[in-house]
Amino acid sequence: MSGRCILLDAGNTRLKWAVVEDGHWHATGRGDYSDWSALTAQLKADTRCFVASVASLEHERQLAALLEAAGLTPAWLRAEARFGDVKNTYSNPHQLGADRWMGLIAARQRIADEAVLVVSVGTAMTVDALSAEGTFLGGVIVPGVHLMQQALRQGTARIDEVAGAWQAFPNATAAAVQSGIVAALCGAIAQQHARLAEVAGMAPRCLLTGGDAEKVLSHLRIPAEHAPALVLEGIDCVARGTAAS
C-alpha cells in the first residue's frame, strides 16, 4: 500500500493508532479520550484513514469531528462474513465487534494453518477460537480487570479501592480481590483453550492482546504470545486489501 495511512483502534477506554507509510509502520501511539493532542499531531492531509471502533457513540462523534477537521474521510470498518480465508460464523456477522474481527484477521496472518485462541484483555475480555481452516468458531466475553473490581466494590461491603497484588494464597482482602480476578480470567482462557484443543485435535496457539494482557500473561499455565498491536495489525491487513481492490 503506497502513500500515508493512519490506522485507528478505538476501544472502550483508549484509542490506539499506527502510522503507515508506503507499507511500513513508522509510528504508534495510544491515549485516552480526554486528550486528543498526540493523535492530532499525526493527522495530515492526503492520508488514508481506517477505523475499527467499539467506543461509545460520544467518543466516535468526537473522533469523527477531529478527523473531519483535519480533512480526513475515514473508512469505518466492521466485521464482515469473510475476509480472505477468515470466515465469520456469527448469525449476524456485523454484530461481531470490529476489534475482535481485526484480531482474528491478524491472527490468521501471523499463524496460518493452525488453530489459534485470540484473547483480548481490555475493559472486557474476549476469548475467540479460530480453526486451522480460518473459521471463527465463536468466543466468550467476560468482564475485564477493572469491571470485576468495580462490580465487587459496588456489590459488596468492606471492599475498598486499595490496589492488591497477586498471591497464590492471598492473606489480605485487596490481594484476594486481585488474585481472584486473575484466576477468573486465566480460567476462562484455559477452558476455551481446552475446548479448542479438543476440536482441533491438538493444542492451539494462543495470542494475547489488550491493555491488561500483561496482568494475566505470566499467570497462564498454557503457552501464550503477547501481541499488543494485534487489532492494528488486522486493520492494516484490511487497509491493504481495500487499497488493492
Describe the 3D structure.
- Helices cover about 35% and strands about 30% of the residues.
- The chain is an alpha/beta fold.
- The strands form 2 sheets. The protein has a 7-stranded mixed beta sheet, sandwiched between helices. The chain has a 5-stranded mixed beta sheet with strand order 3-2-1-4-5.
- β9 and β10 form a beta hairpin.
- The protein is globular, with a radius of gyration of 19 Å.
Topology of helices and strands:
Elements: E1 4-10, E2 14-21, E3 24-32, H1 37-40, E4 47-53, H2 57-69, E5 75-77, E6 82-83, E7 86-88, H3 98-110, E8 116-121, E9 124-130, E10 135-143, H4 145-155, H5 173-200, E11 205-209, H6 213-217, E12 225-226, H7 230-244
Parallel strand pairs: 1-4, 4-5, 7-10, 8-11, 11-12
Antiparallel strand pairs: 1-2, 2-3, 6-7, 8-9, 9-10
Summarize, please.
With 245 residues, the chain is of the alpha/beta class.
Distance between the termini: 11 Å
β-strand number: 12
Query: Helix coverage percent of residues?
Result: 25-40%
Low-confidence stretches: none
Helix-strand makeup class:
alpha/beta
* Shape label: globular
Largest sheet: 7 strands, mixed
Q: Rg to the nearest angstrom? A: 19 Å
Beta content: 25-35%
Order of helices and strands: EEEHEHEEEHEEEHHEHEH
Mean pLDDT: 93
Main-sheet strand order equals 6-7-10-9-8-11-12
Number of helices: 7
